[in-house]
Amino acid sequence: MKTKTFKKQLFKVCFLALGLPFLVNPSANAQTTKLTLDFTKPCVNVSPMLYGLMTEEINHSYDGGLYAELIRNRVFKDNKTKPEGWSLVQQDTASRASIKLIAGDPDNVPGNEARHSINGALTTCLRLTVTKGGSKAGIANEGYWGIPVKPSTTYKASFYLKGTGSMPQRRFGGPQGGGPQGPAPAAAPTIDDNTAGPISVTIESNDGKTVYASGTIELAKSTFWKKYELTLTTGADVKPTADARFVISTNRSGLYYFNLVSLFPPTYNNRPNGNRIDLTKMMIDMKPKFLRFPGGNYLEGPDFANGFPWKTTLGPIDGRPGHKGSWGYRPTDGMGLYEFLMWCEETGAEPLLGVYAGYSLNGDHVDAGSLLKPYVDDALDEIEYIIGDVKTYWGAKRAADGHPAPFKLSYIEVGNEDWFDRSNSYDGRFKQFREAIEKKYPQLKCISTIADAQYPTQKVTGKSPAILDEHYYRSSWDMWENAYQYDKYDRNGPKIFVGEWATREGAPTTNLNAALGDAAWMTGMERNSDLIIMSCYAPLFVNVNTATSTAPKAWQWDSDLIGYNAMTAFGSPSYYVQKLFSEYLGDQVVPMSSENIATQLKPLSKRDSINKVKPISVPTIFYAATKDTKSGAVYLKVVNALGKIQPVEISLKGLTNVSKNGTLVVISGKKSDDTNTITEPEKIVPVTTKIKGIAPVFKQKLAPYSVNVYQLQPGK
Ligand code: AHR
Asked: Does the pTM of the predicted model rise above 0.85?
């Protein structure tokens, strides 16, 4: 109640301060808006790397997202105290069974001297204890908000399993384990070891009543770990559903130990340990020129021990323990360095590598000097893995992992958002990394994460870095206000990489208004793409599942580009803007000017109102044009941020001959908060039409809330 009253009072203050504070008020402009593309003026080149993508493990981007693994908590390390994602299956009361996490060292039960670690990575396993067989008892995995069942689909399942000798039962209850327990009572009965024999593997409905796909493996009579593999295929008549679980079960008594339980659906290009097909295709459609990875905060990690551990992400997944991520859940590291590189190759993007630079999210840092050297060496190793000759140590590892040819690599970003490092150590850290990297690899360019324009007090001194990374997460109003910011930048300074940016409106994916903010901002980057050599929207992915009784909400960051659940994926309106902007892009910027663009008043923030800041006017139309020097095609992008039609007159100065026919692609909607969702994935999508009447001067009506891309063809 208190908060509500306070909010009301604030509204009053704002209203009084401004007169009409929150009302959008386009300037009454009777004159026609004019846009001129000036072909008589010299053009600058469009950066060939202008539009890329940024990625990190956030919002279940990989685990429960792009990385196709379907089993949640496959190595049982997500939670030390309970087997998250797992449950006991006990078909009826005839059998008696339980499950328990067994961590690390020996079970400590007399008579069972087997250690349960498989290797240094697989140190925690799940034990199924069946004290009485005869019916179905097993372990079930719920997947990442469900296991997706699709018709005629073959899934690859694998797991480590051992059935062991009997374990004494305590007189007062069921079997014990998992910690020091002292000697068992002498007269305790034991569980019969009947583990050897067929083990059933199924993808089935959550109530266990419908089996969608099944198979069996023959469990060996051995107390040693063994890896089992099988395929499960669904029938052609299966109805697609994510209301399903993965179950491994038995009808015999004994102790069953499981580790690294994995289930993969078909992946893009059938690559083992590969990626979801639908999401990969959506990325390919954006034609990204590069992929910035592995973060973001994910690169830095919550602390020193948990920066992106690229070395332990290499090789078979059996050697990957996962690590503590930066976004509240534990990444499997199934998406390791090699997989990032393969992902780039599959989408046609060049890797843009962020190297851990001695600063983590908890604020800890390593000063430049001898203490930083191991981190610099680690970055050099990582680069060697990516581009080193096969005769080098890390180049040979890459070859052994399946890729003898070096990957393409031109840019290295040193750290992430180091303006947060209040110790001001970045200057020295950047210098040390840069000198070492450029000495060994003179062809590489190092990017500084501190940019003069954003953080003037934290400059990188010394030899000026070639490229600075700027990050902008803004409202659509802020995007509209700042869409012309780069027109004013010094052309003699470093080049700019807009390494993270987004209009943050809509959740979990963005809405149309955000797309209008994005498009306006992108016209600014495109017009200035002599300076803005690269840019990438963030975050790229979001699993849109809300919390269930067993799993938390899937995302941590609102306003993301591509949404999905276990079954399907959809692009936000911002996704379609990304796609359009990169698809319709020439290699030279056509200089443009405008007249009579209507403006609207930007609403004041609560603080602005209280501080009596005067409202400012922001434009309602944004534009950029490029031309393709080979085909001659001209691409004109015009954004109408207003919810009403805006007529424009477009002049092609210096062009006497242009084809009458052109193409117009429009993204628009009725309401600015319209959006796409799992259930309505194509509410806002680009619509292409043929247009006539193109001439050196022609008129158009911009649809309300619209992003418009004109493709014009000048004559010879
Ligand atoms: O994109 C989400 C986060 O925003 C990134 O991890 C971080 O770099 C930025 O602060």
From this structure: yes
